[in-house]
């Protein structure tokens, strides 16, 4: 059936889908990669925060002894700035990771068409259908797998730290905090690594589903080709009009020619020679009906016509309209022009004449 969507989406369809925000991507990938990046940046962030906190704690006793409002505000301002500078690298890293993750899944594009309200989005039946569709089933499986994997990671991480916590009373505070901090970082990294694997699987599923939704029928492909490349019938009409305009232009140049070399019936080549512009140029040429039209215009405007069958055939093959004649024709055309000048000198140039020095025929 022509309406069955069996064809892969074309480049134009994919481009339109991107503009409308219909891109196969998963939000989980950016979140999990961001968590992994945070686990790398977090120790440095905590270290910087502790250093700033120690500096702040050193200023507090002096402020308590001399409770000057200006000093208190200065300490408060320094505390805010220190916190901001400590968190800034982590925030910039998370932002960069989010941008890169979005770009890697199909580019960053503001889909303005998503802001346009569509009433079909409010259709409750479509929502109910999605609740029991394959997409809802995949989301349920994904949530179950995510819970199982993260639970396993949490168990494997905590089983090593629980004995340490049980014996916390015998450990120095610095050692205990370092142990808990290392365990937390390891937990975050393990969870992030597992999450990235799950997000990658989700990405391929979403991409496959989106591409399936964008499939086209054979009729849609044909219609898009017509819209993009143009209807073949219209293109043929345009080419016909362009050819007609080109013929009209060269017909208008025939009266300006110095001579028309003819076959004498099937071919006509109109030449104009302006010494200051170089070699003679072809202002019009044609075969069959077009050659007859050139001869008729030449007759009406008393342009000399010279019959030279080999020269006419060769020039029709190798010369282009508007271009100078190739060098191999200089000698033969010079003889034709000299013959025409001699006819004009006698006042008998108009009409058809046989070339007294015809070009030798070539095999």
TrEMBL record:
Top-level lineage group: Bacteria
Comp. bias intervals (Basic and acidic residues): 1-10
GO biological process assignments: protein secretion
TM annotation in the entry: 83-104, 187-206
GO cellular component, one term: plasma membrane
Region feature Disordered, mapped onto this chain: 1-20
One Pfam family matching this protein: Bac_export_2
Keywords, in A-Z order: Cell projection, Cilium, Flagellum, Membrane, Transmembrane, Transmembrane helix
Annotated protein name in UniProt: Flagellar biosynthetic protein FlhB
């Amino acid at each position: 059936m022509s309406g069955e969507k069996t064809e892969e989406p074309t480049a134009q369809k994919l481009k339109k889908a991107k503009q409308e925000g219909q891109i196969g991507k998963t939000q989980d990938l950016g979140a999990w990669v961001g968590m992994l990046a945070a686990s790398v940046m977090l120790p440095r962030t905590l270290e910087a925060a502790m250093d700033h906190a120690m500096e702040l704690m050193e200023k507090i006793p002096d402020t308590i002894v001399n409770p000057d409002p200006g000093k208190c505000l200065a300490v408060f301002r320094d505390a805010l700035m220190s916190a901001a500078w400590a968190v800034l690298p982590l925030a910039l890293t998370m932002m960069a990771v989010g941008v890169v993750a979005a770009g890697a899944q199909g580019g960053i594009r503001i889909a303005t068409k998503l802001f346009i309200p569509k009433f079909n989005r409010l259709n409750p039946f479509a929502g109910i259908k999605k609740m029991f569709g394959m997409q809802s089933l995949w989301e349920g499986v994904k949530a179950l797998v995510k819970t199982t994997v993260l639970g396993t990671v949490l168990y494997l991480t905590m089983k090593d730290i629980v004995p340490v916590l049980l014996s916390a009373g015998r450990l120095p505070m610095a050692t205990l905090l370092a142990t808990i901090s290392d365990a937390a970082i390891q937990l975050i990294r393990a969870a992030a690594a597992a999450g990235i694997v799950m997000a990658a699987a989700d990405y391929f599923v979403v991409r496959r589903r989106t591409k399936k939704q964008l499939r086209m029928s054979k009729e849609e492909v044909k219609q898009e080709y017509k819209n993009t490349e143009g209807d073949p019938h219209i293109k043929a009409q345009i080419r016909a009009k362009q050819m007609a305009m080109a013929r009209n232009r060269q017909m208008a140049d025939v009266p300006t020619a110095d001579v028309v070399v003819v076959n004498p019936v099937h071919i006509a080549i109109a030449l104009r020679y302006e010494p200051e512009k170089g070699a003679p140029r072809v202002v019009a040429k044609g075969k069959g009906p077009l050659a007859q039209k050139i001869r008729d215009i030449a007759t009406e405007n008393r342009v000399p016509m010279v019959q030279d069958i080999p020269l006419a055939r060769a020039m029709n093959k190798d010369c282009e309209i508007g271009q100078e004649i190739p060098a191999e024709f200089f000698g033969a055309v010079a003889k034709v022009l000299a013959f025409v000048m001699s006819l004009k000198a006698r006042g008998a140039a108009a009409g058809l004449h046989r070339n007294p020095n015809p070009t030798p025929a070539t095999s």
